């Protein structure tokens, strides 16, 4: 029950953070900002959470960052782009994936976990 409450509380916090970014940012790259920042922080926290225990990991990585970043919205936007422009969709999908991977690796590096 404790784990469910941790994930639920974190999920609520992450969803509220995500919504706050959406309503305060008029930039068309909102999803890139959310996923990039979330990937960076997730990379940094991954090593920290492993060291600090499962509860912290459930709250921050699964809960907060799991709802702050959004693969579902990314997938829906990607599908819509595929119907409109397959080349742009390819660039978008590959670009977002590489961008988030690099952000996570940088977070890991900043956290001192990547040599």
UniProtKB/TrEMBL annotation:
<comment type="function">
    <text>Fluoride-specific ion channel. Important for reducing fluoride concentration in the cell, thus reducing its toxicity.</text>
</comment>
<keyword id="KW-1133">Transmembrane helix</keyword>
<feature type="transmembrane region" description="Helical">
    <location>
        <begin position="57"/>
        <end position="74"/>
    </location>
</feature>
<feature type="binding site">
    <location>
        <position position="66"/>
    </location>
    <ligand>
        <name>Na(+)</name>
    </ligand>
</feature>
<comment type="similarity">
    <text>Belongs to the fluoride channel Fluc/FEX (TC 1.A.43) family.</text>
</comment>
<dbReference type="GO" id="GO:0046872">
    <property type="term" value="F:metal ion binding"/>
</dbReference>
<keyword id="KW-0915">Sodium</keyword>
<dbReference type="GO" id="GO:0005886">
    <property type="term" value="C:plasma membrane"/>
</dbReference>
<dbReference type="GO" id="GO:0140114">
    <property type="term" value="P:cellular detoxification of fluoride"/>
</dbReference>
<feature type="transmembrane region" description="Helical">
    <location>
        <begin position="20"/>
        <end position="45"/>
    </location>
</feature>
<keyword id="KW-0406">Ion transport</keyword>
<keyword id="KW-0813">Transport</keyword>
<keyword id="KW-1003">Cell membrane</keyword>
<protein>
    <recommendedName>
        <fullName>Fluoride-specific ion channel FluC</fullName>
    </recommendedName>
</protein>
<keyword id="KW-0472">Membrane</keyword>
<keyword id="KW-0407">Ion channel</keyword>
<keyword id="KW-0812">Transmembrane</keyword>
<feature type="transmembrane region" description="Helical">
    <location>
        <begin position="86"/>
        <end position="108"/>
    </location>
</feature>
<keyword id="KW-0479">Metal-binding</keyword>
<dbReference type="Pfam" id="PF02537">
    <property type="entry name" value="CRCB"/>
</dbReference>
<dbReference type="GO" id="GO:0062054">
    <property type="term" value="F:fluoride channel activity"/>
</dbReference>
<feature type="binding site">
    <location>
        <position position="69"/>
    </location>
    <ligand>
        <name>Na(+)</name>
    </ligand>
</feature>
<dbReference type="InterPro" id="IPR003691">
    <property type="entry name" value="FluC"/>
</dbReference>
